[in-house]
Structures are given as C-alpha cells and as structure tokens.
Amino acid sequence: MPLAGLNATATYVNEDHDNTHKESRPSVKVVAAIEIGTTYSGYAFSFAHDPNNVIINTNWLYGGSSTEIATKTPTIVLLDNKGDFHSFGFDAEKYYLSLTNHQGWRLFRRFKMALHKNCSLDATIDDLEGNPYPAIELFTTTLRFLNGHLLKALHTKSSTVLETEIQYIITVPAVWTDEARHFMKESAFRAGINKERLELVVDSEAAATWWTGVNIKDNPDINLQTSGSKWLVVKIGGGTANVLAYEVLPKGKVKVIQKASGGAWGFTNVEQQLLENLDQELGVGNLDKLRREHIGDYYELLQEIEDKTRSRYIFSQDACVVRLPYSLSQEVKKHRIQTAKIKTWFDSELSSFIDHIKTVLNTNLSLRELTNIVLVDRFAESMYVQNMLSDAFTELKVIIPQDPKLAVLKGAVLYGHNSGTDISNQSDSI
Q: Membrane spanning segments where (predicted)?
C-alpha cells in the first residue's frame, strides 16, 4: 500500500564528515534539485521557510496519452539544422516527429549512460543517426535548459528570490566514478550554476532522505523514529539500480550503515534486447537501413518499444505486439514476440541486481537485523518487480512509498536543506 504524508526532514550524521561548509555558505532561500535521468528528467524546489513543501513541475507538455510522467520530461535534446539548441523533452520529441525533412537536425536520447563508458571532458556521444557530438556540450545544454525552466517556475512562486540565493543539488548514480561526477559538476558550471552553490548527491541517498521524512499514516506498525531500526532502500530506474541501508539513531537522526552501490541493471537494457530481437527477425541490417533512410520512422519504432516494455500490462497476455512502420515492412505490419521471452530479459536484469543485494547483506553483518525493503523510482510500482523482491527476500517486507518515481527529486531537495549534517561521505566527497 502506498504511504502518504510528510512528517519531518530527517537529519543524517556521518562521523567522518566535515560540517564546516554549511556554516560558511551564504544565505540560502531556496533549495533546487535537478535530476538528469536515463529516460526522464525533472526538477523540484522548496523554500527555506517551508522546506518540506517540495514543489514539482507538473506542467510538462507531454505529447502522448499518458499523464503518468507529466512530472518529468524525456531526456531528449534536439539541435536544429544549424547546430543550435532547439528544444528539450516532449517538445523536442514532438517537433522532431513533425519534421518532413530531418536532414541536419540532430536528436539525442538516453545519453546519460554514455558516461559509464567514457566520462572524459573530450568524450563524444552519438546522435540518433550515429554522428558524434561533444558530451560536455550535451550535458551543459541539458542543465542550462532545466535550470532556466526551473527559474521561471520559481519566479512564479516568488519574484524576490535571487539566483545567488539558491542552493543547487544535482543527483548522480551510485555507480558513477569520481571522474563522471567531476564531469557533471563541470557541465553545471558551464551551464551557469555557481560552483559555490552546487552539491551532488547519490540518487539512492536522496531517495532515502525523502523516505525518512515520510509519516506512515496507513501502516502504524511501521515506525521510522524507532531508535535502532534499520532499513534497506532499493532504487530501480531506467538505466541503473542500486541499494543502501541506514539505521535510525536517537533524537530522529539517521546514519547510513551501507553506502549506496549498484550497477547498470536498468530496464533500458530490455528495450535494447527487444530491438535486437526485432532486427534478427526482420533480417539483420534492416533497422540500420531504416535509421539511415527514414529516421523519423525509426524514432517512432523506438517509442513503440519503450511504451511496450514499460507497460504495467506487459505480462498480462501471451504475446507482445510491436507495430512496425510502413517504411520498414510493407507486408508485415506487426511483430509478435512471446512475453515469456521478454520476461527472461527482465529476469536477467533483476536477478543480477538481487544477487548484488544478497552479497551486500551477507558481507555486512550489521544488516542482519533488517526487516523492510523500501522500493523507489521508476519501477517501484511494478508488481513484477515487487513480487521478485518479495520472493527473493521472504524475511523482508517490501514497502512502496507515495510517489516512488519522485522520491529522488524530493529527497534531493530535503538533503539540500540539511546539507552539512547529511547523508554520507559518499555524497560529501563529490
């Protein structure tokens, strides 16, 4: 059962943490968090006088029929045929599909995961057609757009807040190296965000911050304020999955007892598997030909595959039907694939992550008293994911907080308000 209500921002302690930077930083009136996700991005903020009232943008103009993701927008950048920034997110998606001539236009999607391979400042990322572009420019453009959108939303709430009075928090995956984190900070600086007002936080630690601020009205048997209680926070998103654990201390303080760790076990890998299966069925090379000759149709096919794999009803039928563009196949309009096969791809991703969780639990003796798993992020509401975790950890109860997809963003805001006594040295060192 989803949990509702906000109680109080938790305070994190870290014995090795130097708290001097909080005391020395200038006055902060607003904390703003930005999340560049593998598939979707967004922002949130709250004011210092009312930190728990976290404001999420709910006015993204989505092009599809789903309102489920209106609080975030696709991580998509569109450059015009002159190489200049044109649009981001749903707007970029919609405009790109409306073009009758795509020549010279460049669309980038799913580029966050590229930093797992190469995060040097001279790294490049391919656009949809396979042409390289400087990665640092792409991330800078993304942060500049999201920050600009954020500032407009903020000024509708208060016209007196100056940009120099905003503390920025940017979320990063636990699996990122120090080099990747430096890359993100450099992108933020180039986007105009003052380095004195910027902190990075690991996404699962941000989610834990939000979770420990939740007042569990629907389940009074669970008490977050019980000193000595221990919780496992599991985050499963589009590109990565990770886990951390914390313990409740006296006076409502919280201490991380297992740093965030994980891997690239996100479900975008399932989409790639389906795409490769389709390529084999249609004849290897046909999809590449579609991309070269009908890039708009190719992108619509990618959308179709994404919609199918993230549908909560994907396993409710024996087969999954993917609609094919006319330019790809004039004879075969649909591709049918047995859901049992798709399930093996999902199982592979989740099983690898479950094995990682088991390793964490077995090597950290202090985690043997855990009784609950808190599941957050994009796939937290998936019954398939919930059931696999419940079956793998029969002694633990799986709990889904309210708005699990927004736990990282909201938690990052709360983290920013408590920065300096917060969550763990993994975040404090970046």
A: none
> pLDDT of 398-426, one tens digit each?
998 888 889 999 999 999 998 644 344 33
Q: How far, CA to CA in Å, does 179 sit from each of 54, 118, 278?
A: 31, 9, 36
Tell the residue number behind the tokens 């040295």, with chain if given: 425
Q: Using CA atoms, how far apart are residues 97 and 297, in angstroms rounded to an integer?
A: 8
pLDDT in tens, 90-112: 999 999 989 989 999 999 999 99
Of the candidates 48, 27, 67, the one whose C-alpha atom is nearest the C-alpha of residue 157 is: 48
Task: Give how far Cα 52 sits from Cα of 6, 28, 394, 411, 416, Å.
Answer: 7, 15, 34, 10, 11
How is residue 6 annotated by DSSP?
Answer: B
Could you count the other beta carbons within 10 Å of the beta carbon of residue 178? 10
Residue 144 phi/psi, 5° resolution? -65, -40
Separation of alpha carbons 401 and 107, rounded Å: 35
**CA separation for the pair 383, 309 (Å, rounded):** 14
Residue the block writes with tokens 């019954």? 383
Q: Give yes or no for a contact between 392 and 375, defined as CB atoms under 8 angstroms apart.
A: no
Provide the strand spans (E) within 206-355: 230-236, 241-248, 253-263, 319-323, 334-338
Three-class SS state of 281: helix
Handedness of CA 117, 120, 123, 127 (dihedral sign): positive
d(CA 350, CA 181): 26
Tens digit of pLDDT for each residue in 183-220? 999 999 999 999 999 999 999 889 888 877 654 444 45
- Express the helix, strand and coil content of the chain in percent, nearest 5 each: 40, 25, 40
Domain 11-217+402-428 - what CATH class?
Answer: alpha beta
pLDDT in tens, 6-51: 333 444 444 333 343 444 456 899 999 999 999 999 999 999 999 9
Contacts of 399 (CB under 8 A, 6+ apart): 3, 219, 222, 372, 373, 374, 375
Q: What is the pTM of this model?
A: 0.85
Instruction: Specify burial of residue 104 (Cβ count, 10 A radius: 0-12, 13-18, 19+).
Output: exposed
Question: Which amino acid, 321?
Answer: V
Place of tokens 């941000």: 206
Q: Which residue type is seen at 271?
A: E
Cross-strand pairs, 232: 245, 373
Contact criterion met (CB below 8 Å) for 29 and 48: yes
